[in-house]
Amino acid sequence: MQTEEQLKEIVRKKYSEIALQDKETNMSSCCGAGGCSTEVYNIMSEDYTTLKGYNADADLGLGCGLPTQYAQIKKGDVVVDLGSGAGNDCFIARHETGETGKVIGIDFTPAMIEKARANAEVRGFNNVEFRQGDIESMPITANTADVIVSNCVLNLVPNKDAVIKDIYRVLKPGGHFSISDVVLVGALPEGLRKDAEMYAGCVSGAIQKEVYMELIHANGFEQVTIQKEKAIIIPDDILINYLTADQIAAFNNGATGIFSVTVFAKKPMDQKCVPGGGCC
Predict the structure, then answer these.
(1) Residue 58 sits in which domain range?
(2) Count of domains in the chain?
(3) CATH number at residue 217
(4) Does some domain include residue 246?
(5) So what's the pLDDT on residue 27?
(6) Is the dihedral of CA 9, 89, 65, 71 positive or negative?
(7) Considering the domain boundaries, does residue 271 fall inside one?
(8) For residue range 69-128, what is the model confidence (pLDDT) as tens digits?
(9) Helices 209-218 and 160-170, packing angle to 10 deg
(10) For the segment 25-58, what is each residue's pLDDT rounded down to a tens digit?
(11) What is the model's pTM?
(12) Rounded to whole angstroms, what are the CA distances from 151 to 60, 69, 128, 183, 280?
């Protein structure tokens, strides 16, 4: 079994390659991880082009939702984007928070940070910055963010509980998050779970939906709500790389499901002391 650090290195290497790929390649695969399908063009990502603040150069087609659309960002807010990639969600958040706000993108892949900084520089976005770091231990002071967003990133992190604890730490009391992620209902076939490429591609790092939601509740968040949910259909010409024909048929006809969910949750105004949350 691979360690957490080995899994992180898989993701880091893959997303260094993805930073150099075009959007069409990323959108026709599972979070840009390869295994391009001839059956569908867009497996997970959604259309950002109608959102104000959208910049095509920053859109790598890697997401599984539109968290910034649901994030209730207000003028002057401090917004943090986890796994900020080339800056797509950060630039949309900047439009919402305006000149008086601030947006901080966190990514642990140097190639993504470099690309995002270049995208911000060419647009003269002085209130958007990108910091290299691990979202399990963000390079951000506690009680800083009004809003945290993330798009198809937590499923890549082995220790999701640590990320949720750090989200709680970084949010201001009364702050909230809106996060799009991949979750499972039922047992995913082992052939999908164990493959390193599928790990970097979001699927095998996903956990059960009810476990995901319970982690959020257990870490002290309130008003936990699913803002949007949609089924993710992985085409047979991708599945054939991981499963036999009989396994594909059983997978498609079974109770197992892969879903994109966008989840909202709020940090209480009166902070609860959660073990590992930095207040105890």
Answers:
(1) 4-266
(2) 1
(3) 3.40.50.150
(4) yes
(5) 45
(6) positive
(7) no
(8) 999 999 999 999 999 988 999 999 999 999 999 999 999 888 889 999 999 999 999 999
(9) 40
(10) 444 444 444 444 443 334 566 777 778 877 777 6
(11) 0.81
(12) 12, 11, 18, 13, 30
